[in-house]
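This protein record is not my work; I was only asked to verify it. Take the sequence as given and treat only the tokens as open to question. I have pasted the whole thing underneath without changing anything:
***
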Amino acid sequence: MAGYFVGATTAPSAPLRTSPPREGVNRAAASPAQGPRKKQTFNPNYQQNNPYLGNVLKRLAANDLAAVSTLLDDLEVKGHLSRNVLHSCIRLCAKTNNHHAAIWCAERMRQSGIKLTTVTINSVIDACAKTGDLNQATAWWQVMEHEGIQPNRISYNTMLKACAHARDAKKAEWWIHHMISSGLRPCLISYSTMIDAWSKTGNLAKAEAWFQKMEEAGQQPDAVIYNSLIHACAKAGKPVKAEQLLQRMCEQGIKADEKTYNSVINACAKGGAIQKAEYWFRHMDGAGCRVDEITVGAVMNASAKVGDVDRVEYYMQEMPRRGLRPNVVCYNTVLHACAQIGDHIRALKWFNALKSAGLYPNKISYNSLIDTFMKVGDLDSAECWLRTMVNSGVHVDTITYFTLARDFQHINEHCASQEASRWAFALIIKTYAAEGNMKALGYWLTEMSREGLTLSAEQIGNCMRVSSPVVQGMLMPHWRASVVDYPDQHCSHLGQSEGSDDWSDSYAPTPPQYLEMASYHEVGQDEQDAPVDGDQFGKCLSPASTEDELSVPSLMNLVKEAGDRVYVNVNVEQSQLVDGPCEEDHYLVDGKWAYQRISV
């Protein structure tokens, strides 16, 4: 078997020692025939000659921890389980962004009696940092302190990296000050990570402050640091500052790469400097940098912000000529440009092109399309696309809600913002009610309540008209609230639809106050007053001898199980039945008790 360390030429005759050598033993002179041993440094590629470790890493890459545990047990029995083996496992986990497996490997190391080192802890923290799990990274720092392991500069830089990935720049500042107070000087990586942490939060002032501290410490910035700072300018929409940094970068002999130009173009796009964005796009071509989809998308975004659809379409046609394939972001940029000017014809053309390209529309695609139709006042088409969005498995988000409310208020000049919000909530709730998505329906009902809004009885009636009995039961408490806010509208939904002769065809679900106090008992076929519908006899519910309250869910289950046609006995005031039809076979009135026909 090949050696585990660089310089090992023969298979070991005894299990590898995992503990330090005894005092007084000169291991370099232990085999004079072979000459002095080379320094036993860890080689990350030594597993290529180690079939045991190769199998472990294969199973670990597949996240099969049960198989990994079995293989490690076998290695431990044979005496081949060493710190280097487990370090390789942890580093593989960090590389594949699997910090849970890295933690598992570190715990396994402790269980096997192998002492943790600074390298071990740093590798685990690095795995946590790459996934942005700052809590686990902090927990393993505490393990390092508990084990009495001394942190080094790499330990602190790794914690800074974890904070940057978690977008917690304030915590990163705490750690770099802790690093300085422990007697360690920040290096170029430390300053670079701090600038990156503040850049990701869009705080250009803080990023510049740490850039200045880096220069005062005598550290020379590199392309990575400049890219982070220019990225902060892009987030803040500061094209002039981004251009100045790029010029300074070139003056210092630092070559700008694709990321640099993309950030400058993006800064110009966000700042509305369209001509500047196109200038740097052409300059990037001349500098020999590769133009990719991100670059073209950034230039397109600059034109899209001002609704220049022609220019955006030009770049979309330019991409295939450059050997680039437009992605969803590019198509969404065209849709956004169409929405800016309300060009629904071209918006539909590009939406269909997106699907024809084998791509799937996302929230931004549907939101832009809905925004386009709302801007031209086509509310029916906007509602249709909202239903299509939900039916496609794409959930409504806050951007959808704000788009609907904003555009509705823009269409109706005298509409208050509260009414526009109520309309947007009603449309979203109606869409999910028709879909039967209870979870999403509950979420938006809760959001509406948090805003202190209630729908009118007419709006609730519209939602209940398109929903199942189970969803109707969920909407009933909100109907009750609407009666208090809109007392004149609580029976408007009982009217017969235009052009319909059958009351059951135009039925709107019975309001909650009609159902919650109903008392019932099943009536045999010979006792029914209700008409027969073909061979199916309806089930009739009539007043029971006792006034026991029937819960809404129970009644809804009864309605659902009753079959095709159901007759429900509801306790209502006769004065509330003015708008309802009074044919005997469809609507029977006996004092304050009514028999309402429901289609299930």
Observations:
- Confidence is low (pLDDT under 50) at residues 1-49, 486-600.
